[in-house]
Every structure is written in structure tokens, then in C-alpha cells.
UniProtKB/TrEMBL annotation:
<keyword id="KW-1133">Transmembrane helix</keyword>
<protein>
    <recommendedName>
        <fullName>SURF1-like protein</fullName>
    </recommendedName>
</protein>
<keyword id="KW-0812">Transmembrane</keyword>
<dbReference type="Pfam" id="PF02104">
    <property type="entry name" value="SURF1"/>
</dbReference>
<dbReference type="InterPro" id="IPR045214">
    <property type="entry name" value="Surf1/Surf4"/>
</dbReference>
<dbReference type="InterPro" id="IPR002994">
    <property type="entry name" value="Surf1/Shy1"/>
</dbReference>
<comment type="similarity">
    <text>Belongs to the SURF1 family.</text>
</comment>
<keyword id="KW-1003">Cell membrane</keyword>
<keyword id="KW-0472">Membrane</keyword>
<feature type="transmembrane region" description="Helical">
    <location>
        <begin position="202"/>
        <end position="224"/>
    </location>
</feature>
Amino acid sequence: MLVAALVVCALTARLGIWQLDRADQKIRLQQQIESRHAQPALDGAGWPRAQAGDPSLHDRRVTLHGHWRHDGTVFLENRQMQGRPGFYVATPLQLGPNDAVMVLRGWIPRDAQDRTRLAPLPRPEGEVTLQGRIAPPPSKLYDFGDAGRGLIRQNLDLAAHASALGLPLRPASILQTDPVAADEAPLLRDWPLPAVDVQKHLGYAAQWFALSALCAGLYVWFQLIRPRLQQRRRAPA
């Protein structure tokens, strides 16, 4: 019983320490994101193609100039914003010859009657300037077979899309953060920040430490205190 109690106490205490460590990692991640947001915005020269995939630049603000490649627009479905299902609108922005980056221009709601019916969006021509944040390529969801083809897609393979367009795409994406113009409705750009969930990890840690203390308390009660009390009650007066 002693060995079993020690094992359970040690295991649950270790799990509590692990949750505290996870909480500390999330706090440092949040501080890192806030620090990057506070840095000056990069321009095209400050974000060279050779550094496009550098994770240390994720969450940095950028100001980019280029031309939209509307023929490369895709709608990533099953994406939520403000708790509603819809699509992320992704369009390549050509920064220069043989240089482009996929821009998540915003989110539009899904038609409740026909998921393939898409709201019309403006198609600006000529050079545009946009504000955004550097991000990894769009996250991948589980898909079935052909969910990566056509105008509406579950996921976006940047390499395959670049090959189809005949235009190299940087191994990153941009979350556009410009205020939504009147002619861009119903686009939304309320991009969620990475979840840090510090309180969740602290709560889990408290539960694991409580279980460790409970196991120790039960052992002390049933193996040490209770037998002695019973012996005293059986002892002759």
C-alpha cells in the first residue's frame, strides 16, 4: 500500500508540475506575441523572400505593396469567426516578378441554404497597399479526397497552388488587418490570437495537486491513524 500510495502521489504531483510548466510556456508565448506586435512594421525589403519561412517573424506587422492575383483566390471552408461558420478568403498578392504571398483577406459567412453560393467580393486592380501580420500557412483541417481542389477547399497546399498558378508562393501567409472598407462587406477581419489558456493549465495543476494531497491523506488515515484508533478502542480498560 505504501508503494502504491507513493507512486500515485508522485505521478499526480508530476502532472501538476507539468501543467504549471505548460502555463509558463503559454505566458512566455503571449509575451513573445505582444513583443512582436509592438515592433515597427516591416516592409517588403524588411521581409526578404529568403526569410519568409522564418518562424521568428511570425506575428510581425508588415506593410506590403503588390498586385492581387484574383485567378488564385480560394475559399477555405469550415472556418469560424465570432462563433459563426464560413470561409477564409485567400488571394495571392504578387510582390514582384516570381514572388508572391498568400493573403487571408478576411472571412465571409456561409450561405445556410447553399454552401457553394459565395458572396461577391471586390476585385481591385492595379497596385494595392495593405497592412497585415505574418503568419504560418493556413492551418489544415481533416479532409476527404478532392477537398483540396477547386474554388472552395478544405485546405490549401501552397506548393501545389503555386505550381497551378505558375507563380512561386512564399512559405508563409499574411493576415490582412486593414479596416474593412464599405465595398468589402461582408468581409470580417476579427482574427483570433493564438489561445494561451493559462488559467486552464493552472486549474488542471490545482486538480492534480489536490489528487496528490488526497492520496497522501487517505493513506495516512487508513494505514496509520485509523488502525491506531481501532487498537485503542479494542484495548481493555
